[in-house]
Design a protein that fits this description.
about 450 residues, alpha/beta, Rossmann fold, 8-stranded mixed β-sheet, elongated
Length: about 450
Protein backbone atom coordinates (compact mmCIF):
# COMPACT_ATOMS: atom_id res chain seq x y z
CA UNK A 1 0.00 0.00 0.00
CA UNK A 2 1.41 3.38 -1.03
CA UNK A 3 1.36 6.05 1.65
CA UNK A 4 -0.50 9.18 0.58
CA UNK A 5 1.19 12.53 1.05
CA UNK A 6 -0.57 14.51 3.77
CA UNK A 7 -2.02 17.65 2.22
CA UNK A 8 -0.78 21.05 3.37
CA UNK A 9 -4.39 21.93 4.16
CA UNK A 10 -4.66 19.11 6.69
CA UNK A 11 -1.26 19.89 8.18
CA UNK A 12 -2.35 23.51 8.71
CA UNK A 13 -5.64 22.38 10.23
CA UNK A 14 -3.92 20.01 12.65
CA UNK A 15 -1.48 22.72 13.72
CA UNK A 16 -4.24 25.31 14.09
CA UNK A 17 -6.54 23.14 16.20
CA UNK A 18 -3.89 21.26 18.20
CA UNK A 19 -4.22 23.73 21.07
CA UNK A 20 -7.44 25.64 20.36
CA UNK A 21 -9.88 22.80 19.62
CA UNK A 22 -8.85 19.20 20.49
CA UNK A 23 -11.98 17.71 18.90
CA UNK A 24 -11.40 19.37 15.53
CA UNK A 25 -7.77 18.35 15.83
CA UNK A 26 -8.99 14.73 16.07
CA UNK A 27 -11.35 15.38 13.15
CA UNK A 28 -8.46 16.56 10.97
CA UNK A 29 -6.59 13.34 11.80
CA UNK A 30 -9.67 11.30 10.87
CA UNK A 31 -9.86 13.16 7.56
CA UNK A 32 -6.26 12.14 7.01
CA UNK A 33 -7.23 8.48 7.49
CA UNK A 34 -10.16 8.94 5.11
CA UNK A 35 -7.81 10.50 2.56
CA UNK A 36 -5.55 7.44 2.74
CA UNK A 37 -8.52 5.10 2.28
CA UNK A 38 -9.92 6.99 -0.70
CA UNK A 39 -6.43 7.31 -2.21
CA UNK A 40 -5.99 3.52 -1.98
CA UNK A 41 -9.31 3.09 -3.78
CA UNK A 42 -8.41 5.54 -6.55
CA UNK A 43 -11.07 8.05 -5.50
CA UNK A 44 -8.66 10.95 -4.92
CA UNK A 45 -5.17 11.86 -6.09
CA UNK A 46 -2.08 12.23 -3.94
CA UNK A 47 -2.39 16.03 -3.75
CA UNK A 48 -6.11 16.06 -2.87
CA UNK A 49 -7.94 15.88 0.43
CA UNK A 50 -11.53 15.21 1.47
CA UNK A 51 -11.23 17.94 4.14
CA UNK A 52 -11.98 20.66 1.56
CA UNK A 53 -15.60 19.51 1.25
CA UNK A 54 -16.59 21.65 4.21
CA UNK A 55 -15.53 25.02 5.51
CA UNK A 56 -13.69 24.85 8.82
CA UNK A 57 -14.73 28.42 9.63
CA UNK A 58 -17.95 29.11 11.56
CA UNK A 59 -20.32 30.50 8.91
CA UNK A 60 -23.30 32.84 9.25
CA UNK A 61 -25.32 33.54 6.12
CA UNK A 62 -27.96 36.19 5.44
CA UNK A 63 -30.84 35.81 3.00
CA UNK A 64 -33.33 38.53 2.19
CA UNK A 65 -35.63 40.04 -0.38
CA UNK A 66 -35.90 43.39 -2.10
CA UNK A 67 -36.10 45.57 1.02
CA UNK A 68 -33.04 47.06 2.70
CA UNK A 69 -33.68 45.14 5.95
CA UNK A 70 -30.86 42.65 5.47
CA UNK A 71 -28.15 45.11 4.46
CA UNK A 72 -29.16 47.61 7.15
CA UNK A 73 -29.02 44.89 9.80
CA UNK A 74 -25.53 43.74 8.72
CA UNK A 75 -24.23 47.32 8.72
CA UNK A 76 -25.77 48.00 12.13
CA UNK A 77 -24.52 44.76 13.65
CA UNK A 78 -20.97 45.19 12.33
CA UNK A 79 -20.96 48.94 13.07
CA UNK A 80 -19.88 49.64 9.53
CA UNK A 81 -21.10 50.99 6.21
CA UNK A 82 -20.70 48.10 3.81
CA UNK A 83 -21.77 48.33 0.20
CA UNK A 84 -22.20 44.72 -0.88
CA UNK A 85 -23.05 44.11 -4.51
CA UNK A 86 -26.71 43.20 -4.73
CA UNK A 87 -26.02 40.63 -7.45
CA UNK A 88 -23.06 38.90 -5.77
CA UNK A 89 -22.46 36.55 -2.86
CA UNK A 90 -20.31 38.62 -0.51
CA UNK A 91 -18.13 36.91 2.09
CA UNK A 92 -17.17 39.19 4.99
CA UNK A 93 -13.94 38.26 6.76
CA UNK A 94 -12.10 39.88 9.67
CA UNK A 95 -8.82 41.68 9.03
CA UNK A 96 -6.51 43.33 11.59
CA UNK A 97 -5.75 46.04 9.03
CA UNK A 98 -7.51 49.38 9.43
CA UNK A 99 -8.37 49.60 5.75
CA UNK A 100 -11.23 47.47 4.43
CA UNK A 101 -10.57 45.65 1.17
CA UNK A 102 -12.69 44.11 -1.57
CA UNK A 103 -11.20 41.09 -3.32
CA UNK A 104 -12.51 39.28 -6.44
CA UNK A 105 -14.34 35.95 -6.37
CA UNK A 106 -11.21 34.14 -7.50
CA UNK A 107 -9.80 34.75 -4.00
CA UNK A 108 -12.53 32.47 -2.68
CA UNK A 109 -12.43 29.97 -5.52
CA UNK A 110 -8.69 29.34 -5.16
CA UNK A 111 -8.37 29.23 -1.35
CA UNK A 112 -9.24 25.85 0.20
CA UNK A 113 -9.47 27.49 3.63
CA UNK A 114 -12.51 29.52 2.64
CA UNK A 115 -16.04 28.64 1.52
CA UNK A 116 -16.67 28.50 -2.25
CA UNK A 117 -13.39 26.67 -2.85
CA UNK A 118 -13.37 25.50 -6.50
CA UNK A 119 -16.95 26.74 -6.87
CA UNK A 120 -16.13 27.80 -10.45
CA UNK A 121 -16.40 24.14 -11.45
CA UNK A 122 -19.92 23.95 -10.02
CA UNK A 123 -20.92 27.17 -11.75
CA UNK A 124 -19.53 25.87 -15.04
CA UNK A 125 -21.48 22.62 -14.70
CA UNK A 126 -24.71 24.52 -14.02
CA UNK A 127 -24.27 27.12 -16.74
CA UNK A 128 -21.57 26.25 -19.31
CA UNK A 129 -22.24 29.45 -21.25
CA UNK A 130 -21.84 31.78 -18.27
CA UNK A 131 -19.15 34.40 -18.91
CA UNK A 132 -16.23 34.80 -16.48
CA UNK A 133 -18.03 32.66 -13.92
CA UNK A 134 -16.66 33.19 -10.45
CA UNK A 135 -16.07 36.96 -10.40
CA UNK A 136 -19.58 37.53 -11.69
CA UNK A 137 -21.07 35.86 -8.65
CA UNK A 138 -18.63 36.19 -5.73
CA UNK A 139 -16.57 38.74 -3.85
CA UNK A 140 -14.61 38.78 -0.59
CA UNK A 141 -14.65 41.81 1.72
CA UNK A 142 -12.23 42.15 4.62
CA UNK A 143 -13.39 44.23 7.57
CA UNK A 144 -11.74 45.38 10.80
CA UNK A 145 -14.55 44.40 13.15
CA UNK A 146 -14.18 42.39 16.36
CA UNK A 147 -17.55 40.71 15.84
CA UNK A 148 -16.18 39.03 12.71
CA UNK A 149 -13.20 37.48 14.48
CA UNK A 150 -13.11 33.72 14.01
CA UNK A 151 -16.18 33.58 11.78
CA UNK A 152 -17.41 34.45 8.28
CA UNK A 153 -20.55 36.30 7.22
CA UNK A 154 -22.04 35.47 3.81
CA UNK A 155 -24.41 38.07 2.38
CA UNK A 156 -26.47 36.51 -0.42
CA UNK A 157 -27.73 38.54 -3.40
CA UNK A 158 -31.29 39.44 -4.25
CA UNK A 159 -32.74 36.86 -6.62
CA UNK A 160 -33.79 38.14 -10.02
CA UNK A 161 -35.12 36.69 -13.24
CA UNK A 162 -31.98 37.20 -15.32
CA UNK A 163 -30.08 34.44 -17.09
CA UNK A 164 -27.97 34.02 -13.92
CA UNK A 165 -30.97 33.09 -11.74
CA UNK A 166 -30.24 29.35 -12.05
CA UNK A 167 -26.69 29.79 -10.81
CA UNK A 168 -27.77 32.13 -8.00
CA UNK A 169 -30.39 29.66 -6.81
CA UNK A 170 -27.88 26.81 -6.82
CA UNK A 171 -25.36 28.90 -4.89
CA UNK A 172 -27.99 29.82 -2.28
CA UNK A 173 -28.64 26.11 -1.78
CA UNK A 174 -24.89 25.62 -1.46
CA UNK A 175 -24.68 28.40 1.16
CA UNK A 176 -27.63 27.03 3.13
CA UNK A 177 -25.99 23.63 3.23
CA UNK A 178 -22.60 24.87 4.51
CA UNK A 179 -23.84 27.46 7.01
CA UNK A 180 -23.93 27.00 10.77
CA UNK A 181 -26.48 29.77 11.22
CA UNK A 182 -28.83 31.32 8.67
CA UNK A 183 -30.70 34.58 9.20
CA UNK A 184 -33.63 34.61 6.77
CA UNK A 185 -35.30 38.00 6.50
CA UNK A 186 -38.98 37.38 5.87
CA UNK A 187 -39.17 39.77 2.91
CA UNK A 188 -37.40 36.93 1.09
CA UNK A 189 -40.72 35.04 1.01
CA UNK A 190 -42.39 38.00 -0.68
CA UNK A 191 -40.25 37.61 -3.81
CA UNK A 192 -41.52 35.95 -6.99
CA UNK A 193 -42.56 32.37 -6.00
CA UNK A 194 -40.83 30.84 -9.01
CA UNK A 195 -37.49 32.41 -8.02
CA UNK A 196 -37.51 31.26 -4.41
CA UNK A 197 -39.09 27.83 -4.97
CA UNK A 198 -35.83 25.82 -4.89
CA UNK A 199 -34.47 27.82 -1.96
CA UNK A 200 -37.65 27.25 0.05
CA UNK A 201 -37.39 23.52 -0.66
CA UNK A 202 -33.81 23.59 0.67
CA UNK A 203 -34.92 25.39 3.83
CA UNK A 204 -37.72 22.85 4.30
CA UNK A 205 -35.28 19.95 3.88
CA UNK A 206 -32.90 21.43 6.47
CA UNK A 207 -35.41 22.96 8.87
CA UNK A 208 -34.71 20.38 11.59
CA UNK A 209 -31.03 21.36 11.69
CA UNK A 210 -31.76 24.21 14.14
CA UNK A 211 -29.78 26.65 11.99
CA UNK A 212 -32.55 29.04 10.87
CA UNK A 213 -33.58 32.33 12.45
CA UNK A 214 -36.44 34.08 10.65
CA UNK A 215 -36.05 37.84 11.06
CA UNK A 216 -39.14 40.05 10.75
CA UNK A 217 -38.11 43.67 10.21
CA UNK A 218 -40.12 46.42 11.89
CA UNK A 219 -37.10 48.46 12.89
CA UNK A 220 -38.89 51.73 12.13
CA UNK A 221 -41.37 51.36 15.04
CA UNK A 222 -41.48 50.30 18.69
CA UNK A 223 -43.36 47.13 19.57
CA UNK A 224 -44.35 45.60 22.88
CA UNK A 225 -44.01 41.86 23.54
CA UNK A 226 -47.68 41.07 22.85
CA UNK A 227 -47.60 42.76 19.46
CA UNK A 228 -44.31 41.03 18.58
CA UNK A 229 -45.83 37.68 19.51
CA UNK A 230 -48.82 38.37 17.24
CA UNK A 231 -46.52 39.22 14.33
CA UNK A 232 -44.48 36.06 14.93
CA UNK A 233 -47.63 33.90 15.08
CA UNK A 234 -48.82 35.40 11.80
CA UNK A 235 -45.52 34.58 10.07
CA UNK A 236 -45.44 31.09 11.58
CA UNK A 237 -48.82 30.36 9.98
CA UNK A 238 -47.66 31.85 6.69
CA UNK A 239 -44.46 29.80 6.56
CA UNK A 240 -46.31 26.66 7.64
CA UNK A 241 -48.19 26.91 4.34
CA UNK A 242 -44.79 26.55 2.64
CA UNK A 243 -43.90 23.52 4.77
CA UNK A 244 -41.67 25.37 7.26
CA UNK A 245 -42.66 24.45 10.82
CA UNK A 246 -39.47 24.97 12.83
CA UNK A 247 -36.91 27.70 13.43
CA UNK A 248 -36.62 30.73 15.68
CA UNK A 249 -38.48 33.96 14.96
CA UNK A 250 -37.21 37.41 15.90
CA UNK A 251 -38.95 40.74 15.39
CA UNK A 252 -36.61 43.68 14.85
CA UNK A 253 -38.06 46.88 16.27
CA UNK A 254 -36.70 50.11 17.76
CA UNK A 255 -36.83 48.61 21.25
CA UNK A 256 -35.91 44.99 20.42
CA UNK A 257 -32.90 43.16 21.81
CA UNK A 258 -30.36 41.24 19.74
CA UNK A 259 -29.45 39.00 22.66
CA UNK A 260 -30.85 35.88 20.97
CA UNK A 261 -28.74 36.46 17.88
CA UNK A 262 -25.69 37.26 20.02
CA UNK A 263 -26.19 34.02 21.93
CA UNK A 264 -26.44 31.99 18.73
CA UNK A 265 -23.33 33.66 17.33
CA UNK A 266 -21.47 32.90 20.56
CA UNK A 267 -22.31 29.22 20.06
CA UNK A 268 -21.04 29.10 16.47
CA UNK A 269 -17.82 27.33 17.46
CA UNK A 270 -19.83 24.35 18.67
CA UNK A 271 -22.16 24.45 15.65
CA UNK A 272 -19.12 24.42 13.39
CA UNK A 273 -17.60 21.43 15.20
CA UNK A 274 -20.79 19.38 14.83
CA UNK A 275 -21.00 20.35 11.15
CA UNK A 276 -17.41 19.35 10.38
CA UNK A 277 -17.86 15.98 12.12
CA UNK A 278 -21.12 15.45 10.25
CA UNK A 279 -19.35 16.23 6.97
CA UNK A 280 -16.67 13.68 7.86
CA UNK A 281 -19.27 11.03 8.67
CA UNK A 282 -21.22 11.70 5.47
CA UNK A 283 -18.00 11.44 3.44
CA UNK A 284 -17.19 8.10 5.06
CA UNK A 285 -20.69 6.72 4.54
CA UNK A 286 -20.66 7.83 0.90
CA UNK A 287 -18.03 5.17 0.16
CA UNK A 288 -20.54 2.38 0.78
CA UNK A 289 -23.72 4.31 0.00
CA UNK A 290 -22.68 6.09 -3.20
CA UNK A 291 -19.24 5.45 -4.70
CA UNK A 292 -19.18 1.65 -4.55
CA UNK A 293 -22.80 1.18 -5.82
CA UNK A 294 -22.27 3.67 -8.66
CA UNK A 295 -19.08 1.92 -9.80
CA UNK A 296 -20.44 -1.61 -9.38
CA UNK A 297 -23.46 -0.74 -11.49
CA UNK A 298 -21.10 0.21 -14.29
CA UNK A 299 -18.91 -2.84 -13.62
CA UNK A 300 -21.89 -5.09 -14.37
CA UNK A 301 -22.57 -3.25 -17.63
CA UNK A 302 -18.88 -3.37 -18.56
CA UNK A 303 -18.63 -7.08 -17.78
CA UNK A 304 -21.72 -7.89 -19.85
CA UNK A 305 -20.46 -5.91 -22.84
CA UNK A 306 -16.95 -7.38 -22.68
CA UNK A 307 -18.29 -10.94 -22.34
CA UNK A 308 -20.75 -10.43 -25.17
CA UNK A 309 -18.00 -9.13 -27.46
CA UNK A 310 -15.80 -12.13 -26.64
CA UNK A 311 -18.69 -14.54 -27.19
CA UNK A 312 -19.32 -13.01 -30.60
CA UNK A 313 -15.68 -13.54 -31.51
CA UNK A 314 -15.83 -17.09 -30.13
CA UNK A 315 -18.96 -17.70 -32.15
CA UNK A 316 -17.13 -16.49 -35.25
CA UNK A 317 -14.28 -18.97 -34.56
CA UNK A 318 -16.79 -21.82 -34.03
CA UNK A 319 -18.46 -20.89 -37.32
CA UNK A 320 -15.08 -21.10 -39.06
CA UNK A 321 -14.56 -24.57 -37.54
CA UNK A 322 -17.93 -25.69 -38.83
CA UNK A 323 -17.06 -24.55 -42.35
CA UNK A 324 -13.67 -26.22 -41.99
CA UNK A 325 -15.35 -29.46 -40.99
CA UNK A 326 -17.67 -29.30 -43.95
CA UNK A 327 -14.86 -28.62 -46.39
CA UNK A 328 -11.90 -30.43 -44.80
CA UNK A 329 -13.26 -32.68 -42.04
CA UNK A 330 -10.91 -31.49 -39.30
CA UNK A 331 -13.15 -32.21 -36.31
CA UNK A 332 -11.73 -35.75 -36.00
CA UNK A 333 -8.27 -34.23 -35.69
CA UNK A 334 -9.44 -32.18 -32.68
CA UNK A 335 -10.21 -35.40 -30.80
CA UNK A 336 -6.63 -36.52 -31.17
CA UNK A 337 -5.15 -36.97 -27.63
CA UNK A 338 -2.20 -34.72 -28.48
CA UNK A 339 -3.44 -32.35 -31.16
CA UNK A 340 -6.82 -31.78 -29.46
CA UNK A 341 -5.53 -30.39 -26.12
CA UNK A 342 -2.82 -28.44 -27.91
CA UNK A 343 -5.42 -26.84 -30.18
CA UNK A 344 -7.64 -26.03 -27.18
CA UNK A 345 -4.68 -24.44 -25.39
CA UNK A 346 -3.87 -22.33 -28.45
CA UNK A 347 -7.52 -21.28 -28.69
CA UNK A 348 -7.49 -20.18 -25.02
CA UNK A 349 -4.22 -18.30 -25.50
CA UNK A 350 -5.79 -16.49 -28.44
CA UNK A 351 -9.11 -15.74 -26.69
CA UNK A 352 -7.59 -14.39 -23.45
CA UNK A 353 -5.77 -11.40 -25.05
CA UNK A 354 -8.82 -10.81 -27.27
CA UNK A 355 -11.04 -10.74 -24.17
CA UNK A 356 -8.62 -8.40 -22.42
CA UNK A 357 -8.61 -6.12 -25.44
CA UNK A 358 -12.43 -6.10 -25.60
CA UNK A 359 -12.57 -5.37 -21.87
CA UNK A 360 -10.24 -2.38 -22.23
CA UNK A 361 -12.15 -1.01 -25.20
CA UNK A 362 -15.46 -1.16 -23.33
CA UNK A 363 -13.80 0.23 -20.20
CA UNK A 364 -13.09 3.48 -22.05
CA UNK A 365 -16.81 4.00 -22.70
CA UNK A 366 -17.66 3.14 -19.08
CA UNK A 367 -15.08 5.64 -17.81
CA UNK A 368 -16.75 8.36 -19.90
CA UNK A 369 -20.12 7.40 -18.41
CA UNK A 370 -18.71 7.53 -14.88
CA UNK A 371 -17.22 10.97 -15.46
CA UNK A 372 -20.59 12.23 -16.66
CA UNK A 373 -22.27 10.61 -13.68
CA UNK A 374 -19.74 12.13 -11.31
CA UNK A 375 -20.40 15.56 -12.78
CA UNK A 376 -24.17 15.08 -12.52
CA UNK A 377 -23.91 14.06 -8.85
CA UNK A 378 -21.47 16.92 -8.22
CA UNK A 379 -18.93 14.56 -6.63
CA UNK A 380 -15.30 15.43 -6.01
CA UNK A 381 -14.32 11.77 -5.79
CA UNK A 382 -13.10 10.14 -9.01
CA UNK A 383 -15.53 7.28 -9.70
CA UNK A 384 -13.52 6.33 -12.79
CA UNK A 385 -10.46 5.92 -10.58
CA UNK A 386 -12.20 3.31 -8.44
CA UNK A 387 -13.46 1.61 -11.61
CA UNK A 388 -9.95 1.43 -13.08
CA UNK A 389 -8.62 0.02 -9.80
CA UNK A 390 -11.11 -2.83 -10.29
CA UNK A 391 -9.80 -3.75 -13.74
CA UNK A 392 -7.28 -6.33 -12.56
CA UNK A 393 -6.44 -9.39 -14.69
CA UNK A 394 -8.41 -11.90 -12.62
CA UNK A 395 -11.40 -9.57 -12.30
CA UNK A 396 -11.52 -9.34 -16.08
CA UNK A 397 -11.19 -13.09 -16.58
CA UNK A 398 -13.37 -14.32 -13.72
CA UNK A 399 -17.08 -13.52 -13.19
CA UNK A 400 -16.46 -10.86 -10.51
CA UNK A 401 -18.74 -7.81 -10.55
CA UNK A 402 -17.67 -6.30 -7.22
CA UNK A 403 -15.23 -3.40 -7.01
CA UNK A 404 -11.89 -3.67 -5.22
CA UNK A 405 -13.43 -1.49 -2.48
CA UNK A 406 -15.86 -4.18 -1.44
CA UNK A 407 -13.72 -6.18 0.93
CA UNK A 408 -13.26 -6.77 4.63
CA UNK A 409 -10.35 -4.35 4.90
CA UNK A 410 -12.40 -1.45 3.56
CA UNK A 411 -15.40 -2.37 5.73
CA UNK A 412 -13.22 -2.37 8.84
CA UNK A 413 -11.72 1.04 8.03
CA UNK A 414 -15.12 2.57 7.22
CA UNK A 415 -16.58 1.20 10.45
CA UNK A 416 -13.62 2.53 12.46
CA UNK A 417 -13.99 6.02 10.97
CA UNK A 418 -17.72 6.11 11.69
CA UNK A 419 -17.02 5.07 15.29
CA UNK A 420 -14.49 7.89 15.54
CA UNK A 421 -17.19 10.33 14.42
CA UNK A 422 -19.56 9.02 17.09
CA UNK A 423 -16.85 9.35 19.74
CA UNK A 424 -16.16 12.95 18.73
CA UNK A 425 -19.86 13.83 18.87
CA UNK A 426 -20.01 12.27 22.33
CA UNK A 427 -17.03 14.37 23.42
CA UNK A 428 -18.80 17.48 22.17
CA UNK A 429 -21.94 16.49 24.06
CA UNK A 430 -19.94 15.92 27.22
CA UNK A 431 -18.92 19.58 27.18
CA UNK A 432 -22.51 20.54 27.93
CA UNK A 433 -23.52 17.75 30.31
CA UNK A 434 -22.03 15.11 32.56
CA UNK A 435 -23.13 11.52 32.55
CA UNK A 436 -21.93 8.83 34.86
CA UNK A 437 -23.01 5.21 34.83
CA UNK A 438 -22.51 5.15 38.60
CA UNK A 439 -24.96 8.01 39.05
CA UNK A 440 -27.67 5.85 37.52
CA UNK A 441 -26.73 2.53 39.04
CA UNK A 442 -29.60 0.72 40.83
CA UNK A 443 -27.53 0.39 44.02
CA UNK A 444 -27.01 4.10 44.42
Amino acid sequence: MTEKTISKHLINLENHFSASNPILHKASQSFQQLDQLEYNLGLIDDDETTATKCSWWPIVSFIGGFSTAKSEFINRYLSSKLHSSQHKFTVHQYTPQETNTTLPGTALDADHRLPFFQISQKIKSISPDTDNQVNSFLELKTLNCEKLKGKLFIDTPILNSTKDATVQTALIQYVLNMSDLVLVFTDFFEATPELIEDSVKEIVSQQDSNKFIFVIDHSEISLDKNKSDEIIASWQRRLAELGIYTGEFIVLSQNSSLSEIDQRLANLENDRSYRVINSLENSVKAINDCYIPEVEEQLVIWKERANMSSLIILGFIVTLLIFAEISMGIVDILFDPIIGPATLLILILILIPIHLMMAKIHAKFIIKNLKKRQKKLNLTEDLAGLFEKSLTFWRIILPINESVAKNKKTRVKVHALIEQCKDMVQELNDQFSSYSIQDNSPNK
